[in-house]
Amino acid sequence: MANQDLRVGIIGVGMMGADHAERVVHRTAGARLVAVSDPDTARAEALAAGFDGVRTITDPLALIADDEVDAVIIASPGFVHEEQVSACLERGKFALCEKPLTMDAESALRLVEAEARLERPLIQVGFMRRFDPEYAAMKELLDGGELGRTLVVHNVHRNKAVPPSFRSEMIVRDSLVHEVDVCRWLFGEEIDEITVLAPAPTSAAAEGVLDPQVAIFRMAGGGMATTEVFVNCQVGYEVRCEAVAERGNVTIGLGQSVFVRQDGRYGGDVPDDFRSRFGRAYDLELQAWADATRRGEVVGPTAWDGYAASAVCEAGMESLASGRPVTVGLVDRASVVGATR
Ligand code: ISE
Fold first, then answer.
1. For a Cys staple, 310 with which of 35, 74, 108, 332, CB 3.0–4.6 Å?
2. How far is ligand 1, taken at its centre, from the CA of residue 201, in Å?
3. CATH number for position 40
């Protein structure tokens, strides 16, 4: 496949899937969008009509099985991920699955085990922040060792507003899940324990929704991380991360790329949502996925990363309900995936 275009099918063409469709068509070298699937067939047809040579296939499992589809981007809701990722594994097709990998640790682990039985990785999970140039530079600096051991990581994750259907647990499973992955990746360690607390909620939150939330992670090697997640902050999309190491600290997300002074004031724009803030990260993520898939490899976050994140979030939701720290009970990694991945 290395010399041919990767023929990509996308399942789910809501906000993220439609964004990826445009990205595959216009900004991913060596990849070609050939099919899309969505329960809202009118939406799928309207999207396909905007591009040349893109078919709609109503049944997502038929899209996965289609001979003209080499690899699949899964951007459907999390509750159908297990079935769709399993079908990709059964057909031996590479999949880039948007986060969360599945809705709970048990089903995510089933996918890790099914992939391990194939003895070749096929799944990448869409934790795009690992491809963001600022996060990547931070990781490189910390791994370089000059700053010494990383002691604490502080995160801020704010969305301008979310619909009333975005409940307290979703703040953990859909939003905090990014910091779960970022902290596992930056420290290079699992999260052993999580506490999620909530102050008195903002008046902008829907009835009964605990927003903002503050999470504390205890890392397996003794480090700690704090995260404020605030999904109705009203201002715009803000993601910041500061890593404090023994001989220095690194901060990303200050958003100072374009800084204007005018009429006695100074400042810049706050991005509206994650598609603009992480647009470059998504582009790099898809390019890396397409390149690796054509080589027959997986780069970036693995099925294990998806499982570990689901397990931490499950413990986080329990902690949010009880107000107490909850231990994350991961299965032994080597016994499932071997020592290599
Ligand atoms: C959304 O699903 C994302 O993945 C965004 O990155 C995050 O900021 C947002 O809170 C989630 O709802």
1. 108
2. 19
3. 3.40.50.720
